[in-house]
Write a structure and sequence with these properties.
There is one protein chain. It contains six helices and ten strands, in the order αβαβββαβααβββαββ. The chain starts with a helix and ends with a strand. The mean pLDDT is about 95. The radius of gyration is 14 Å and the shape is globular. The strands form three sheets. It has a five-stranded mixed beta sheet with strand order 5-2-3-6-9, covered by helices on one side. The protein has a three-stranded antiparallel beta sheet with strand order 1-8-7. With about 150 residues, the protein is an alpha+beta fold. The protein has one domain (about 5-154): YbaK protein (Alpha-Beta Complex), CATH 3.90.960.10.
């Protein structure tokens, strides 16, 4: 299953250099990290959040959970984990396949500060068997996320 067509189009239109990384089928960012033999701190995962006013994407290291209090403060909205139905209906994708590109879904994006320490990020690509690797600075330029400190160790 190749990377999501809309993601490929977004990256190409914006002239973002990226590398498609094939791996065995994985359902979590932790598995993606283990399978590709890269640190959890370099593998990002996307979490869909539901607020009173909006949906949001939180992008954080594979080995972290969301601090909803910190995210609520960043969003100016009380946020919690979105339901599986929100993912399938609003994002038209499955759990575990959310690409951390809010521009694809017209959603605001929050990125955890810890990910900014990496030169490159390994990101889910809308496929259970492929990820994309790209320069952190290119991701930031493309998505213009709100930076915060909301990833807490599992």
């Amino acid at each position: 299953m190749p990377i999501a067509k809309n993601l490929e189009k977004l990256l190409k239109q914006n002239r973002i250099k990226y590398e498609v990384v094939e791996h065995r089928k994985v359902f979590t960012a932790m598995d993606a990290s283990a399978t590709q033999h890269i640190k959890q701190s370099e593998v990002a995962k996307a979490v869909l959040l539901k607020g009173k006013k909006n949906l949001y994407l939180a992008v954080l290291p594979a080995g972290n959970n969301c601090d909803f209090k910190a995210l609520s403060k960043l969003a100016g909205d009380k946020v919690s984990m979105a339901k599986e139905k929100d993912i399938t209906v609003k994002l038209k994708t499955k759990v575990g396949l959310i690409a951390p590109f809010g521009s694809l879904y017209k959603l605001p994006v929050f990125i955890d500060k810890k990910l900014l320490k990496n030169k490159k990020l390994n990101l889910p690509a809308g496929s259970y068997t492929e990820s994309v690797a790209l320069a952190t600075k290119d991701y930031l330029k493309l998505e213009n996320p709100i930076v915060g400190n909301f990833g807490i160790k599992k």
